[in-house]
Each structure stands twice: as C-alpha cells, then as structure tokens.
Amino acid sequence: MNKKYLCVIFMFCFIPSLLFGMVTNTNQSAEYIRMMNRNASTGLDAVLFNPAGLSRLEDGTYIYFSSQTIWQSRKVIAKYPDYNTDTFTGETFVPTFPNVYFAHKRNKLSFFGGFMPIGGGGSAKFPNGLPTFDYQLAKLVGLPAGLVNEALAPYGKITGYSVDASFTGSSVYYAGQGGITYSITDMFSAAFGLRYVYANNTYVGSLENAVLEAANGNIEGVIPNIEVNSKNTGTAYTAVFGFGVAPSEKLNIGLRYELKTKLEVESSTEKDNTDLVLDEPMFPDGVTYHEDIPAQFGAGISFKPVNRLRFEADFNYWFNTACDWDGDEENVVNDFNTGLGIEFSLTNALLLSTGFLYSTTGATDAYNSDLDYSLASSTLCAGFQYTLNNKTALSFGLSNTFYQEGQNNDVGTIFEENYQKTALVIAFGVQYKF
Questions:
Q1: Which residues, including other chains, have CB under 8 Å from residue 293's CB and lie 6 or more apart?
Q2: Could you give the CA distance from residue 247 to residue 186 in angstroms, rounded to a whole number?
Q3: For the stretch 392-401, what's the b/e string if a residue is b when 16 or more beta carbons lie within 10 angstroms of its beta carbon?
Q4: What is the pTM of this model?
Q5: Separation between Cα atoms, residue 292 and residue 23, nearest integer Å
Q6: Cα dist. 339→41, 138, 300, 404 in Å?
Q7: Looking at the DSSP assignment, which residues form a beta bridge with residue 111?
Q8: Domains of the chain
Q9: For residue 53, which of 314, 388, 394 has the smallest C-alpha distance?
C-alpha cells in the first residue's frame, strides 16, 4: 500500500484543564465548588484565590485540605459519511483532586503555602478511538483497491473498513505555592507569592487489526499494528501578586495577578513504532514542546448587606494570545469567566451557599479538533459549611457544568465535527486552626 495512504495520524488527547480555563484549573477548594466565586475569599483557600485576603484571618496557624471527585463525559459527533459511526465518546473520572493550604498569621504578617493541580489532573479514555484515527481508513472507501496498490486490483472497490483503535491521554500540572501577606493598614493589604509547576503528560494507545472491506473480499495485513507509549515532563516557576481593600466589615475587595508561566516539556518515549508507516516516529524521544500557562487577572467582591447574608462576585481574565503553544496560540483569543455566589447563615454554625459561573472559551473553530477542544460553559453549584467548634470547620460542595456545543467547521476543514461535554463535581473540605 502506498505510504501516502498509510499516514496514520496518531496523536493523543491533551487535557490541560478540567474546569473553566483553557489551561488553568479554577476549581481549587470545596468552598469554590459550593460558591463558584472566591476571589474575595478571607478563608484558607485565599492562599490561591486572594492571598492578600489572608490579612483578615485571626492570629494563628491554619491548615486546610479538600478533595474533589470529578466526572466528565466527552462526545465527538462527526459528519464524514463513510465512518462506521458518527459518535465517538470518552470518559474522564478523577477519584480525588486534592488541595492543601497552610497559613500562619501574626500581627501584620501572614506566611502561606499551598499545593494544587493547577492544570489537568485527569485522563480521557476513548475505548473506540476518535475520528482522527478512523479518517485514515474511511477516506479510502469508494476507491478501487488497485488505486491504493496495483496488486490489490482484483479486490475491486473498497466498501468499508474495521480497526481496533483505543487511547488514553492524561495530563496534570502539579503546583506548589508559597508567599507572604502584609497588612499595610486596616484597609489595605498586599501579597507576593512564588509558584513552582511540574507538568506530566502521558499518551498510551494502539491501532490494531485494521481491515479494508472490498467488493471481492477483505484485505488484511496491509496496515501494521501501531503502539505508542510516551510522556512529556517539565518544570517552571512564576510569580503571583495580590492586593486587598476592605473599606468596612461589610465590603471586601480582592485583586490578583499571576504572571505567565513559561513552561517547556520534553518527551520521553518508551515505544513508538509509527515509523512503520511514516517517514519518522510521531513521538520522537527527547523533543521539547512549549505549553505555557497564561497570565491571569482575577478580581472579586464580597458584600454583606445584612448580618446573615453575603454576596460574592468574581471576574477572571486569561491572556491566552501571549502564550507559546507551538503555533496553536494563533487560533485562540483571550477568555474570561464571571459569576455570583450567595451565602446565608442558617445558624451560627451552618452556612448554606449557592452560585453561578459563566465561562467563555478562548478556542476558535480553527483551534478545536477531536483531540483537543475547549467549550464555553455555565455552572450551577450549591453546598454548605458547618463549624464544629472554634478550631474545625467542614465544607461540602456540588456543581454541575453545562457546556455549549463546539465545532471545527471553520473555512478550510475537510468535514464538520461537533463537540459536547458534561462535568459533575462533588467536593469535601476541612479547615483546622491550631
């Protein structure tokens, strides 16, 4: 068979973000899952969302831990007429998505630290492959077998195909963050932090048992079995700045700016025999790729009009176009999210909350593909916090994200695809003061 018909595009799904940002995970505490708006937080998750807000803590040493369980479904609906199916589905399940925060406050100074999966954190499994795989065989349907290879002319016209294709792509960016908060006055506070990021992406999959169905019999063995087992790893640093304003006990404003994280990852490939059908392997060992995490501006307002009721509103903006994504940044725009959360004190110990968040996507039609797509979304959430005593508080949150359907039918694409996604999150958290 001619090699031009054997160029099996064997790429794997990259999952830089589980929720909301194109790359950055914003779901970094149980409090966030129960309210969706934490940029004006004065709790322990302020380590990430509002480091300047740690100045509002009482003097003492605090630790916080939360874990989320995340279910996502992904669906690609392909319009190419010769596929065996028009729907390709995948699942992402994250049994635990941890966040750990620490803070020590004394007088005007607060020291803080945290650990979180700042990007990714899960794996997508597509047991029946994706359109990218099937297209390499489906595009032969209708052609005379002799056109593919003269020796196959007796088989007549190609009428169909079959192939066993599967892959799993996973990605996680672990981050450790530390810094200092200073109370300039009773009203103003400022914070500075440093963040270390470790990226680990893995790609495992196979194309096996490919068969071309023809008018005069099946054609087997012309396409070799392909296997890939590769990963990319890399590290980077960035800085975080925070500024807080609290004009009164009822009003609190938090501002945060995270510099762009210039991240490079290097491939380490255990197996890649795609050179059986290509001029060179698809995943060569030792190659460097650019996976910057975009700079982010965040702002939040917390307002307490009456004693038992509090409102929180957020705005986040990501500077995607300033990133180096090996050319993909040419097909993105900057994106944002905004929302509103409400918290009500049912008793002195029990806080009930709900929230809403709307997120745009920075992906254009030209960016989206079955291997990597980003969708605009709306999220609803609810939950509670229960204070056991003056040292311990527990939190629970539940959120459901509704994604708008995306597409890649930009001018110049071969065929149209539509992309769908769902996400459900359950979160538990505990805060303890020593």
A1: 23, 24, 118, 119, 173, 197, 236, 238, 260, 261, 263, 323
A2: 9
A3: ebebbbebeb
A4: 0.90
A5: 9
A6: 14, 44, 10, 17
A7: 104, 180
A8: 3-433 (2.40.160.60)
A9: 314
**pLDDT tens sequence across 360-413:** 999 888 888 887 888 999 999 999 999 999 999 999 999 999 999 998 866 555
Average pLDDT over residues 87-102: 91
Compute the average pLDDT of residues 162-191: 91
pLDDT above 70 (res 215): yes
Rounded to an integer, what distance in angstroms lies between the CA atom of residue 100 and that of residue 36? 18
d(Cα 239, Cα 224) in Å, to the nearest integer? 48
pLDDT in tens, 127-138: 777 887 788 788
8 Å CB contact between 292 and 261 = yes
Cα 200 to Cα 104, 117, 239, 250, 302, distances in angstroms:
31, 11, 21, 43, 36
How many C-beta neighbours within 10 Å does residue 318 have? 29
> What distance in Å separates the CA atoms of residue 339 and residue 64, rounded to the nearest whole number?
24
